[in-house]
Amino acid sequence: MKNIKKIIFPFLLIIIFSFNTSCSTNNMKPEDFKNKEPRLIIEKYLSGNVKAWGVLQNRSGKVIRQFSAELNGKWDGKQLILDEIFNWDDGEIQKRQWQINKIDENNYEGTAGDVVGKAKGYSYGPAFKFEYVLLVPVKGKEIKITFDDWIFKQDERVAINRATMTKFGFKVAELTVVFVKD
Fold first, then answer.
1. Domain housing 164
2. I need a surface site. Which of 34, 101, 141, 180 has the fewest CB within 10 A?
3. Which of 65, 100, 101, 63 is nearest to 86 (CA)?
4. Distance (Å, whole) CA 175 – CA 57
5. Are 153 and 33 within 8 A, CB to CB?
């Protein structure tokens, strides 16, 4: 019986993982938005002051937190320095500073103090996709959460952000944000 469990358990894990990833795979690619308007040039949109409001939902869709945020970006022609201050509805204040480098017309790399390694960004048409691993404080510990972040420019002032947060390939939360440029 023990030998059967040793053989079956790995196969069950593979099946569960394959099912989870096949059901949650987003086939959307940044290139899908290549010829669409309005064009989101992230370093221009996030330069200056931008206000944001958002909701954090758990994996079943229940809103568990809300926030407002102030963003201030400075573009020097090569790098965007983006300061973010998040004011959560439970009183927590979070600060982050991004350093985002433009690699070419469509590709970016970014770093921040609570980001593991480098974030990868892709920009086409009105869409900007940002992929990164963030250290998230949970009950006195920091856990690594993978972000699949999409920002869509609506007009000159408004953009909408949708982020899926995963751990070991499983969705743990979603974040929806509305940005308004001053």
1. 38-181
2. 141
3. 65
4. 6
5. no
**116 falls within a domain:** yes
Bridge partners of residue 151, in order along the sequence: 128, 161
In a structure prediction context, what are the per-residue pLDDT tens digits for the chain, which is 182 residues long?
555 445 554 444 444 444 444 444 468 999 999 999 999 999 999 999 999 999 999 999 999 999 999 999 999 999 999 999 999 999 999 999 999 999 999 999 999 999 999 999 999 999 999 999 999 988 899 999 999 999 999 999 999 999 999 999 999 999 999 999 99
How many angstroms separate the CA atoms of 29 and 159, rounded?
18
CB 150 within 8 A of CB 163: yes
The DSSP 8-state label assigned to residue 62 in this structure reads -
Is the pTM for the entire model greater than 0.90? no
